[in-house]
Amino acid sequence: MGCVTNVTIRQSASSGATVTLHGRFEILSLLGSIMPPPAPPGIMGLPIYLAGGQVVGGGVVGGLIASGPVMIMVASFMNVTFDRLPMDDDEVSVAIQNQHYQNGRHQHADISDLYGMPQNLLNNAGSLHTEMYAWGSARAVPKT
Q: Considering Cα of 128, then 131, then 133, then 134, what sign does the dihedral take?
């Protein structure tokens, strides 16, 4: 798809904290949707998944800066509607647990929540350590 640089993302599992990733990242996935009213707020957005040694993702906050050609495919549909289906019992219990988590049991955003990795691998500014997103160099393959 292409590459972007210096991206600010917000992961939906956190309490609204944002993280700016500095450097060049390959786009693995970039999705978006715009729904007409009465679609509920939060259904729209621009989730992105990036690779740069580690895979990170979240909702795009602010602009995206391409660091080369980027291929984007767009589709438009007429008479779009939004329908919410009833949840299964398992999904209801997970939704209640997530709401409890977001409503105060966890007051601050833990940086390990954003990346799914221990905090000691991140620097104090909340950005990735350079070793975590640097591409490994290719190793020569011996001829047999």
A: positive
Q: How far is CA 120 from the centre of its chain?
A: 21
Query: How far, in whole angstroms, is CA 55 from its chain's centroid?
Result: 9
Q: Among 83, 92, 95, which Cα is nearest to 39's?
A: 83
Residue 6 has pLDDT above 60, yes or no: yes
Indicate if the pLDDT at residue 111 is higher than 50: no
E strand segments, 11-138: 18-30, 47-51, 55-60, 65-66
pLDDT digits (tens, 9 = 90+) for 119-139: 444 444 445 444 444 444 445
Q: What is the pLDDT of residue 97?
A: 56
DSSP H or E segment with residue 47: strand 47-51
Structure tokens at 57: 């993702």
Q: 86 is written with which tokens?
A: 């009833």
End-to-end CA distance of the chain: 35
Stated as kind and residue range, the H or E segment containing 51 is strand 47-51
Considering only CA atoms, which of 109, 112, 134 is closest in space to residue 121?
112
pTM above 0.90, yes or no: no
